[in-house]
Amino acid sequence: MKVLYTSSDFNCWRKTISPSNSVGFVPTMGALHGGHLSLVEASLKNADMTIVSIFVNPKQFSKDEDFDTYPRDLEDDLNKLKQYNVDIVFVPEFGDIYGYPGDAVVFDDPFSKTLEGASRPHFFPGVLDVVSRLFNIVNPNFAHFGRKDAQQLILIEKMVGDLGSPITIIPGETIRESGGLAMSSRNEYLTDEQKKSAEVVFKSLKSAKKLLDSGVVDSGVVRELINNIMATEKIIEVDYVSIVHLDGLLEVDHEIGGEVLISIAVVINSIRLIDNIFY
Ligand code: AMP
Asked: Are 243 and 256 in contact (CB under 8 A)?
């Protein structure tokens, strides 16, 4: 496993790779957990070479968010990745990503305005900018993204499709702790007691699925069930409970029909967590 810290070193390495070798890419912000590592495993199975990037992207944090305190432990991340035998870990500096080509890459899409985009308007412009810059440097055949960040995954698939990019996006299932809490680097901020309370998020999504399985189609009834279950944990503040059609990411007002994304964003002691299911 090689660790490369600059895009020029990366470019030198990239030139040595024959076009007949496929390249899989897993972009991350580090503080690696089982969710990230499941994407790494998928890439190792799928492609000849696997590249993991670690870059905490300041552009996707607002001034009052946790960029400064975001968990960072490069040594621990590298130890984990070594066990998986990835080919390259790319750990660029800010100037390396944003110094060239200079201007922000703007992919403005109506899908970026709802859900996370409504709560965090800075977020998707920052994510799509950094992902497109990383794609330009890494030039992968495949890129792996988790369904846990469902709207991010959908927007990246759209960006790649709209730009006619040859990169294939491969989604990965959400990996959870044993109690159902979706793994997240931000879980590190939570006490055990807060993590236990946070399990109510997935519990309510599972109950929503059961209700839909039983034939209920009224989105209001499903939202109410989720809200009632969430209300049993007093320390949880609900940011949104949302059921959107996949073909527009707009709220389902009445009957649920076709594929929907049911997602929840909560805040526990100022830590924001998201989770979802596709149904
Ligand atoms: P991050 O480091 O949070 O930017 O995440 C990097 C990648 O890991 C993104 O594609 C995320 O969707 C994915 N990811 C994060 N948490 C999970 C999880 N619990 N299960 C699967 N993928 C995840």
From this structure: yes
Query: CA-CA distance, 183 to 202, in Å (whole number)?
Result: 11
pLDDT in tens, 96-128: 999 865 566 777 888 999 999 999 999 999 999
Q: Is 109 exposed, middle or buried (0-12, 13-18, 19+ CB in 10 A)?
A: middle
Q: Return the residue whose CA atom lies nearest to atom 17 of ligand 1.
A: 35
pLDDT digits (tens, 9 = 90+) for 132-167: 999 999 999 999 999 999 999 999 999 999 999 999
Counting from 1 in the atom list of ligand 1, the atom nearest the Cα of 31 is 2
Pocket residue to mutate for ligand 1, from 54, 148, 273, most atoms within 8 A of Cβ: 148
Query: Can 36 be counted among the known catalytic residues?
Result: yes
Report the predicted TM-score, pTM, of the whole model to 2 decimal places.
Answer: 0.97
Cα(155) to ligand 1 centroid in Å equals 15
What are the pLDDT digits (tens) for 170-182?
999 999 999 999 9
